[in-house]
Amino acid sequence: MAIGIARRDFLAALAGTAAAGPLAARAQQDRMRRIGVLMSLAADDKESQVRLAAFRRALQELGWARDRNLQIDIRWGADDIEVTRRYAAELAVLAPDVILASGNTAAKPLQKATRAVPIVFVQVAEPLGEGLVESFAQPGGNVTGFASIEYGMSAKWLELLKEIAPRVTRLVVIRDPASAAGNGQLGAIQSIAPALGVEVSAVGVRDPGEIERAITAVARDPSGGLIVTTSTRASAHRELILALVARHKMPAVYPFRFYVTSGGLVSYGADWIDQYRRAAGYVDRILKGEKPADLPVQAPTKYELVVNLKAAKALGVDIPATVLARADEVIE
Length: 332
Known about the structure:
Blueprint: H1 2-30, E1 33-39, H2 46-61, E2 70-76, H3 81-94, E3 98-102, H4 104-113, E4 119-124, E5 143-147, H5 151-164, E6 170-174, H6 180-192, E7 199-203, H7 208-219, E8 224-228, H8 232-236, H9 238-248, E9 252-254, H10 257-261, E10 266-270, H11 272-287, E11 303-308, H12 309-315, H13 321-326, E12 329-331
Parallel strand pairs: 1-2, 1-3, 3-4, 4-5, 6-7, 6-8, 8-9, 9-10, 11-12
Antiparallel strand pairs: 10-11
Helix pairs in contact: 2-11, 3-4, 5-6, 7-9
């Protein structure tokens, strides 16, 4: 009889243990949690709004609903270093459960502001070189996330440019000289330029005048072309860049789809919307108790080639059939 009671107690305890996991997870989602978001661009930037909306939808699919069990504090850096630093410090003081950092210009100030609050970044080209993580496999510390580019892909931008505009022999590369990623991307382009018969010059993105002077100088040469790297500051000045390229009818390759949907010629790069969705998954795991140090940094899994035929016609560029066949999206 005593043996039967002991066995019954053991089975009841085992059943209780099995139920504890789902119940604990449900309890976590029933109480209000708080996350911070630091976006690198301005609040009225349409592309930033699209990405933020994708992040919110993914969180909702994971059971996190704003004003039910989730509070979101959003700050906009507006491509202003001082503003971004101030907001990073402000979010750190709020001590949310986790912070989403959009781009290196947001991730670095946040890392300096707090070593305690978990940080998930997206769109950081070189998290290791920027000192955000110790390694991809074991980030260490309180920061992890999603890298935006592999340097080898930067070389593909020049290969693509030569494919669509073989006459290009003089190239200007727009990059952020203060960024390890910007210099790395420039280096990858320079490494293959001699073999393709291309002379490369670089321009920073400190102010609109610098960009305009550089593009205008190269545009005087009919063999000139342009590549824009993955710079937050270049993204902030994209309307100016696109206007100058259109005015001078210069073939150009961009890193983001939104350049092409705004009138640019060709883009090749990671699917940013996908990164924000995946970031929501990491935020969810951290809210449920996992540590950033245990979540490996992930490289892009989806790349997209986008071609704008209307822009090609305006620029006098014939897009080869080989490029059109590879394109993920062709804008008529």
